[in-house]
Amino acid sequence: MTVSFTAVYRQVPEGFIAFVEELPGANAQGATLEEARRNLEEAVALVLEANRAMSEIEIGDGDVIREPLRLTA
């Protein structure tokens, strides 16, 4: 499954900062644009993993329905 997000990069004196518009908390930086891209991909994976873990804690043993959500934007 492929999901598309919008990555935003800004050059600063130290290199590049980056964030994903649609995913609060997914931020990164790098000395080069390529490094910032790699770091942002890792940040997105970590944010999604953390969100899943927090959701599981909140739900606990509750009775829920889980299903894939596919979006076309």
Structure notes:
With 73 residues, the protein is α+β, with helices and mostly antiparallel strands. The chain has one domain (7-59). The chain is 37% helix and 22% strand. It contains one helix and three strands. The chain has one helix at residues 33-59, and strands at residues 7-12, 15-20, 27-30. Strand 2 and strand 3 (27-30) form a beta hairpin. It starts with 6 loop residues before the first strand and ends in a 14-residue tail after the last helix. The model has no long low-confidence stretch (mean pLDDT 93).
Reconstruct the topology from this structure.
Layout: E1 7-12, E2 15-20, E3 27-30, H1 33-59
Antiparallel strand pairs: 1-2, 2-3
Give me the count of strands: 3
Quaternary status of these chains? single chain
In whole angstroms, the N-to-C terminal distance is 14 Å
Whole-number total of structural domains: 1
Helix coverage percent: 25-40%
